């Protein structure tokens, strides 16, 4: 079972290959791309402990030698300090522009290592081997790379497209249920933003997918990646349509800032809550029916996911405070907050025209329910 989605960007197109047990075949996919049979792999300690030897064997099968280094797991790794460590190590490995760097891990590793590849020797090629559901359906595709700053998430980075993405759906089996469901937040986002039939499918197949159904996982990753690829091909550098992928993210980034980017709230959990809030806001503005936010929340709840502000443990700032935290978001244009709202499930659009009071109202009511 192999699916391939092509990201057809002029001069820098690439395939996203999706299916189980791809690590074992990594050498066959990479060999034709290599000038010399050696690659530099950067992973995190969790992923390395579970899967690095399988990747090593997969590469060795076609005679590719692998040098590997591991980073501490977690969002805090997307930092200047770890970027420095990565670049130093890659230079020590004498990685040249014709070589391949491999990002082997979740979105944290993919974003950081992609950025290191973007700036090393003014840009070396890299391959994404995403291992979390979030990374397979979202962060490994589209070329956004970067690190976090004290002022906010992802504020330092570059567009740098990978040369290949290998999404081995079998490795999803070792994710904790919480990390799996956080990634599922991004999967639901695709249905909500642009494909109502996909959302219908998720309502039916979501439980089987979470329980480990391999075919359902491949199909969910394929449809998500196809939708992301289509949007990235229309708007690689987010001048327009690509912002649709940020459905739920204006709320999410404020909640992540409020919870200190800690494991109180994982990114994908924030996206799920953010999508529910975006639909609530859309309904209050009369853009979609009152039933739509209820349907979104019902599906998230049925999957056992965080859905409401009340599902976030510990203190949160008040509504004004949360709104203030949206100010650093990259989705602010000329000081105006941009939101992704919806006219219904599967029909999202970008707008800068959202009354501040409506946002405050949604936040106040959500906080009052805590
Ligand atoms: P992550 O990389 O921290 O991975 C989550 C956890 O799962 C980590 O502890 C990791 O070690 C572990 N893990 C990963 N794969 C595993 C596996 N197969 N088995 C067991 N454990 C595994 O986080 P994430 O959720 O993958 O990604 C979140 C990051 O992605 C955020 O920094 C976010 O900003 C970024 N992101 C980037 C984009 C983009 O377009 N570049 C899009 C969405 C999100």
Can you offer a commentary on this structure?
The mean pLDDT is 95. The longest helix is centred in the middle third of the chain and has 21 residues, at 214-234. This protein has 13 helices and 13 strands. Helix 5 (133-139) packs parallel to helix 8 and helix 9 (249-258) packs across helix 12. The protein has a 7-stranded mixed β-sheet with strand order 1-2-9-6-5-3-4, sandwiched between helices. The chain has a two-stranded antiparallel ribbon with strand order 7-8. A two-stranded antiparallel ribbon has the order 10-11. It is 46% helix and 18% strand. It has 2 domains: 3-174, 3-Layer(aba) Sandwich (Rossmann fold); 184-368, Dehydroquinate synthase-like, alpha domain (Up-down Bundle), CATH 1.20.1090. The chain has 370 residues and is an alpha/beta fold.
What distinguishing features does this structure have?
370 residues, alpha/beta, Rossmann fold, Dehydroquinate synthase-like, alpha domain, 2 domains, seven-stranded mixed sheet, two-stranded antiparallel sheet, 18% strand, binds nicotinamide-adenine-dinucleotide
What is the alpha-carbon Rg in Å? 20 Å
Question: What global shape is seen?
Answer: globular
Domain count: the total is 2
Q: Beta-strand level of the residues, as a percent range?
A: 15-25%
State the end-to-end CA separation. Answer: 45 Å
What are the secondary-structure elements, in order, as H or E? EEHEHEHEHEHEEEHHHHHHHEEEEH
Q: Average pLDDT across residues?
A: 95
**Helicity range of the residues?**
40-55%
Q: Spell out the CATH superfamily of the largest domain.
A: Dehydroquinate synthase-like - alpha domain
Which residue ranges are poorly predicted, with pLDDT under 50 across at least 5 consecutive positions?
none
* CATH class membership of the largest domain: Mainly Alpha
From the helix content, strand content and strand pairing, which structural class follows?
A: alpha/beta
CATH topology title of the largest domain: Dehydroquinate synthase-like, alpha domain
């Amino acid at each position: 079972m192999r699916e391939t989605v092509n990201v057809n960007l002029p001069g820098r197109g690439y395939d996203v290959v999706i299916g189980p047990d791809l690590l074992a075949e990594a050498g066959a996919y990479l060999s034709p791309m290599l000038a010399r049979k050696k690659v530099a792999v950067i992973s995190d300690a969790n992923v390395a402990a579970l899967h690095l030897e399988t990747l090593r064997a997969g590469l060795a099968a076609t005679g590719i030698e692998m040098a590997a280094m591991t980073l501490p797991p977690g969002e805090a790794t997307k930092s200047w300090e770890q970027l420095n460590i990565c670049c130093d190590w890659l230079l020590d490995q004498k990685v040249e522009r014709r070589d391949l760097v491999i990002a082997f891990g979740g979105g944290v590793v993919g974003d950081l290592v992609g950025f290191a590849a973007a700036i090393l020797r003014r840009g070396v090629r890299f391959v994404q081997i995403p291992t979390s559901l979030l990374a397979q359906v979202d962060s490994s595709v589209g070329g956004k790379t970067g690190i976090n700053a004290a002022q906010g998430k992802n504020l330092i980075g570059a567009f740098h497209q990978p040369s290949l993405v290998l999404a081995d759906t079998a490795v999803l089996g070792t994710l904790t249920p919480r990390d799996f469901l956080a990634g599922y937040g991004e999967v639901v986002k695709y249905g909500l933003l642009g494909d109502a039939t996909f959302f219908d499918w998720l309502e039916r197949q979501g439980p089987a997918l979470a329980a480990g159904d391999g075919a359902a996982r491949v199909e969910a990753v394929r449809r998500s990646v196809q939708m992301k690829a289509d949007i990235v091909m229309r708007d690689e550098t987010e001048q327009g349509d690509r912002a649709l992928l940020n459905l739920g993210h204006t709320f999410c980034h404020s909640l992540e800032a409020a919870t200190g980017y800690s494991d109180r709230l994982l990114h994908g959990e924030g996206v799920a809550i953010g999508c529910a809030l975006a639909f609530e806001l859309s309904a209050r503005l009369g853009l979609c029916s009152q039933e739509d936010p209820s349907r979104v929340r019902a599906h998230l709840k049925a999957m056992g996911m965080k859905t409401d502000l009340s599902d976030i443990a510990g203190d949160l700032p008040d509504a004004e405070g949360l709104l203030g935290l949206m100010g650093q978001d990259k989705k602010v244009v000329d000081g105006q907050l941009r939101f992704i709202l919806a006219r219904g499930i599967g029909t999202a659009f970008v707008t800068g025209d959202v009354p501040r009071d409506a946002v405050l109202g949604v936040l106040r009511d959500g906080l009052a329910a805590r």
